[in-house]
């Protein structure tokens, strides 16, 4: 079995071999106000991205390329900061924009650098003691698994691993069956990094509430892919990033902590923004308390320009329309899945075919074939994919976002077909 770290090294070498000349001087013509679900409109959307035209990029699940508008916003603001010496502090506008985008209160949003950071804040802040049980899945990403494994190692919490089901109901049942008197947390992905399956998060959070259990959702993928309504989902904590499906600046993310639970999640990192007052001159020196909003969990000097890029990315998404994006990216993935299944009886489709469980990522493997080889084969045809080594799954994951189209998917299908026949 190939080691993912070795494979990433190999992938970097392969990627390094691709000639690439970014053209940031260029910017696209503005998108028309009215969106239309036809290829002419989606071609205009594609034009908004500097993404190389010599390559078919099917790995948005790892990193979402940004459109020109976002890149220029970040560039211009960085230039302004370095021209004027302006101290940006935090970006309240990005917090407001995220809150509206996710249908929640701005006081419930903290800005982070990535999903992993948000997971660590929640994982370490929860009031747990030795022997408390945490339910997770057999499809975790390192950024979700390792914080919890670390807490298990240092604090003695016990991790119970459930299998993902082939359907949403089966997954829910597996979680239900794993609950014991000691279960304190359900911490699961909304969409795992492995096979792109959408978990029934609303039902999982409801189940958690009924059993007085914390619901912590690793939401790395849904914002920007699916309409994500945090009020409706009802989780205690939701963690995501802006650098995947939202196509925002890289190294930006957010943590949602419901207002009702804020006072129970301890802030372990202190610093500018976290406190409600402190005094080093009183005897003894004191910390008054913690901010009554998301600032409780982020602190110090931040990259204000990057956060300005989040607002721009949300503007871009809103201009196209969240529901419209969801419909498009799901339609592309459905087309891909249906046609992959037709290619060969040796092709094992890992992403559920059940519509409610299928988003914009499709993962599969081919009987008795090493999927790293398929990734290399695709790379030779200038197609970028994601090999999944996590949890020994050994499959290929394909992401379809708004800049992709059916012609690109057809090219990928041809590449897979050729590989099967080798
Ligand atoms: C499901 C899932 N969780 C967590 C992460 C970690 O994200 P980040 O690199 O932003 O910390 C990823 C990244 O791919 C992911 O897919």
Structure characterization notes:
- By secondary structure, this protein is α/β, with parallel strands linked by helices.
- It folds into 2 domains: 158 residues, Aspartate Aminotransferase, domain 1 (Alpha-Beta Complex), CATH 3.90.1150.10; 227 residues, Type I PLP-dependent aspartate aminotransferase-like (Major domain) (Aspartate Aminotransferase, domain 2, 3-Layer(aba) Sandwich), CATH 3.40.640.
- It is built from 13 helices and 15 strands.
- It has a 7-stranded mixed β-sheet, with helices on both faces. A 4-stranded antiparallel β-sheet has the order 11-12-15-14, covered by helices on one side. Strands 1-13 form a two-stranded parallel sheet.
- Helix 6 links the parallel strand 3 and strand 4.
- The protein is globular and about 75 Å long.
- About 3% of the residues have low confidence.
- The chain binds pyridoxal-5'-phosphate (PLP).
- Pyridoxal-5'-phosphate binds next to helix 5 and helix 6.
Strand arrangement across the biggest beta sheet: 2-8-7-6-5-3-4
How many individual domains? 2
Number of helical segments with 4 or more residues: 13
The major sheet is characterized as: 7 strands, mixed
Share of helix, binned = 25-40%
What would CATH call the homologous superfamily of the largest domain? Type I PLP-dependent aspartate aminotransferase-like (Major domain)
CATH architecture of the largest domain: 3-Layer(aba) Sandwich
DSSP strand content: 5-15%
Order of helices and strands: HHEHHEHEHEHEHEHEEEEHHEEHEEEH
CATH class of the largest domain: Alpha Beta
Mean pLDDT: 93
pLDDT under 50 segments (min length 5)?
7-20
Give the overall shape.
globular
The total strand number stands at 15
End-to-end CA span: 21 Å
């Amino acid at each position: 079995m190939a080691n993912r770290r070795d494979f990433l090294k190999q992938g970097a070498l392969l990627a390094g071999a691709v000639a690439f000349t970014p053209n940031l001087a260029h910017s696209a013509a503005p998108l028309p106000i009215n969106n239309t679900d036809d290829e002419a409109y989606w071609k205009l959307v594609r034009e908004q991205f500097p993404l190389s035209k010599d390559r078919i990029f099917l790995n948005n699940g790892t990193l979402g390329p940004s459109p020109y508008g976002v890149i220029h916003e970040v560039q211009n603001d960085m230039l302004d900061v370095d021209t004027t010496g302006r101290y940006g502090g935090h970006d309240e506008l990005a917090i407001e924009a995220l809150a509206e985008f996710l249908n929640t209160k701005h006081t419930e949003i903290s800005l982070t650098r990535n999903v992993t950071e948000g997971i660590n804040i929640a994982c370490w802040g929860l009031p747990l003691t030795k022997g408390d049980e945490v339910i997770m899945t057999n499809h975790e990403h390192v950024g979700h698994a390792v914080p919890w494994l670390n807490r298990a190692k240092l604090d003695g919490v016990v991790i119970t691993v459930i299998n993902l089901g082939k359907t949403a109901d089966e997954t829910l049942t597996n979680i239900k069956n794993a609950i014991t008197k000691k279960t304190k947390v359900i911490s699961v992905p909304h969409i795992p990094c492995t096979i792109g399956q959408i978990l029934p998060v609303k039902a999982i959070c409801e189940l958690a509430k009924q059993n007085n259990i914390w619901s912590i959702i690793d939401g790395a993928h849904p914002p920007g892919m699916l309409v994500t309504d945090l009020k409706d989902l009802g989780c205690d904590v939701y963690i995501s990033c802006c650098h995947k499906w939202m196509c925002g600046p890289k190294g930006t993310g957010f943590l949602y902590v419901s207002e009702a639970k804020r006072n129970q999640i301890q802030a372990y990192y202190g610093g500018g923004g976290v406190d409600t007052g402190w005094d080093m001159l009183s005897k003894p020196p004191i910390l008054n308390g913690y901010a009554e909003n998301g600032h409780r969990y982020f602190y110090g000097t931040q990259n204000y320009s990057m956060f300005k890029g989040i607002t721009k990315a949300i503007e871009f998404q809103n201009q196209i329309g969240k529901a419209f994006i969801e419909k498009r990216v799901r339609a592309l993935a459905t087309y891909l899945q249906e046609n992959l299944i037709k290619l060969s009886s040796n092709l094992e489709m890992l992403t559920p075919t059940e519509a409610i469980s299928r988003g914009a990522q499709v993962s599969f493997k081919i009987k008795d074939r090493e999927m790293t080889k398929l990734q290399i084969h695709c790379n030779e045809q200038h197609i970028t994919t994601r090999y999944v080594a996590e949890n020994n799954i050994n499959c290929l994951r394909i992401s379809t976002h708004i800049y992709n189209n059916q012609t690109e998917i057809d090219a990928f299908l041809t590449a897979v077909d050729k590989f099967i026949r080798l």
